[in-house]
C-alpha cells in the first residue's frame, strides 16, 4: 500500500490497516505530517522511517508496529496501544503518550525528550540507550517493572551505565535509591532480548 492510498482510504472511513507495509519510497512521497489518524488499526504494520511529525494517533492500535527510525516528534498518541512495538531509533521528542500502553516495547536508542508518558509507566521494555530527559514521569517509573536499562538517560540527565533489570513497585517512590538493581552479564542480554516479546501480536 502506498502512503497516499492509506491517507485516502482513511479519509473515506476505513480504519483497519493491520499488517500493511509502506516502502521507504512510498513513505517519502506521502505526507502524514499533522494529519488525524485517530482510532486507526496499524497492528504489525511496517512504518520504518515514516515522517509522522505531529500526527494524531489518539486511541490507535499500534500493537507490534515497526517504527524504526520513524519521526513522531510532537505526535499525539494518547491511549494508543504500543504493546510490543519496535521503536528502535524512533524520535518521540515532545510526543503526547498520555495513557498509552507501552509495555514490552523495544525502545533501543529511542528519543523521548520532553515527551508526556503514561503516568503509570511501562513494564518489560527494552530501554538500551534511550533518552528520557525532561519527560513527564519520574525516574522510578522508568526503573521498574523488569525494564531493561543500559546506558539509559534518565529524566534528570543522569545515565544508568550498566546493563540491569530493574524491578521496583509502581508505588515505591520512597525507595527509588533501593530500586532492586540487578546487574546481569552482557552475554545474557542478547538471549534475553530475543525472548522479551510475545511471539504473536495478532491473537
What would you say this structure looks like, in words?
The chain has 203 residues and is largely without helices or strands. The chain has one domain: E3 ubiquitin-protein ligase SopA (Pectate Lyase C-like). The protein contains 4 helices and 6 strands. The protein has helices spanning 3-11, 24-29, 139-142, 186-194; strands spanning 126-128, 147-150, 152-153, 159-160, 164-166, 182-183. β1 (126-128), α3 and β2 (147-150) form a beta-alpha-beta unit. It is elongated. Mean pLDDT is 83; it is low at 169-185 and 197-203.
Short description:
By secondary structure, this protein is low in regular secondary structure.
Radius of gyration computed on alpha carbons: 17 Å
- N-to-C order of helices and strands: HHEHEEEEEH
* Percent of sequence in beta strands: 5-15%
Number of helical stretches of at least 4 residues: 4
CATH fold node name: Pectate Lyase C-like
In total, how many domains does the architecture comprise?
A: 1
Strand count = 6
Q: Which stretches are low in confidence, meaning pLDDT under 50 for 5 or more residues running?
A: 169-185, 197-203
- Classify the helix fraction into a percent range: 10-25%
Overall 3D geometry?
A: elongated
Going across the major beta sheet, what is the strand order?
1-2-5-6
**CATH structural architecture:** 3 Solenoid
End-to-end C-alpha gap: 23 Å
| Top-tier CATH class | Mainly Beta
The CATH superfamily bears the name E3 ubiquitin-protein ligase SopA
Briefly note the structural class of the backbone: little secondary structure
Biggest beta sheet summary:
4 strands, mixed
Mean pLDDT: 83
